Amino acid sequence: MADDLNTADSGASKDRPAQATTVKKNGYIIIKSRPCKVINISTAKPGKHGSCKCSFTAVDLFTGKKMEEVCPGHATVRVPEVTRKEYGLTYIEDDGFMNLMDGDTNRDPG
Predict the structure, then answer these.
(1) Scanning 10, 30, 76, 105, which has the fewest C-beta atoms within 10 Å of its C-beta?
(2) HSE of 75 in the Cβ direction (CA atoms, 13 Å)?
(3) How far is the C-alpha of 96 from the C-alpha of 43, rounded, in Å?
(4) What is the pLDDT of residue 108?
(5) Is residue 71 within 8 Å of 19, Cβ to Cβ?
(6) Which residues of 22-31 are buried (b: 16+ CB within 10 A; e: fewer)?
(7) C-alpha span between 77 and 36 (Å, rounded)
(8) d(Cα 49, Cα 38) in Å, to the nearest integer?
(9) How far is CA 40 from its chain centroid?
(10) What is the mean pLDDT, run by run of 10 residues, along the chain of 110 residues?
(11) C-alpha torsion 17→23→25→28, nearest 10
(12) By C-alpha distance, which of 71, 33, 77 is closest to 54?
């Protein structure tokens, strides 16, 4: 039992903090605890309270739902680490399981 605790994954997501003004179009941002791809950014000029406002329009990576967030330019936002990996489908078994081929090493990733 103790061995299981030592090797367990925490399940935490991989993200990093970034200043709102450093996030770019086609980049990634976390909005309402969801990883999103930024499709539009607009910034408002600094007003009497000091800092510019950044308005992000983004699409959820998993649901495709459009999301928006407005924050001060100097604010810290969370940016997810996104990697994309493609696999080739080699076979679908009768019980619905799929066999995939890793394109880099040409072997089964499982």
Answers:
(1) 10
(2) 15
(3) 48
(4) 60
(5) no
(6) ebeeebbbbb
(7) 12
(8) 26
(9) 16
(10) 43 81 94 95 83 93 95 92 85 90 65
(11) 0
(12) 71
What does the pLDDT read at residue 77? 95
Looking at residue 68, its amino acid is E
CA-to-CA dists, residue 60 to 34, 35, 39, 102, angstroms: 7, 6, 11, 26
**What are 55's two structure tokens?**
């308005």
Q: What is the CA radius of gyration of the chain?
A: 20
Q: Are 21 and 73 in contact (CB under 8 A)?
A: yes
Give me the count of residues in the chain: 110
HEC string for 43-95:
EECCCCCCCCEEEEEEEECCCCCEEEEEEECCCEEEEECCCCCCEEEEEECCC
- Exposure string of 65-82, with b = 16+ CB inside 10 Å and e = fewer, is eebebebbbeeebebbee
Q: At 96, which helix (H) or strand (E)?
A: none
Q: Which amino acid is at 84?
A: R
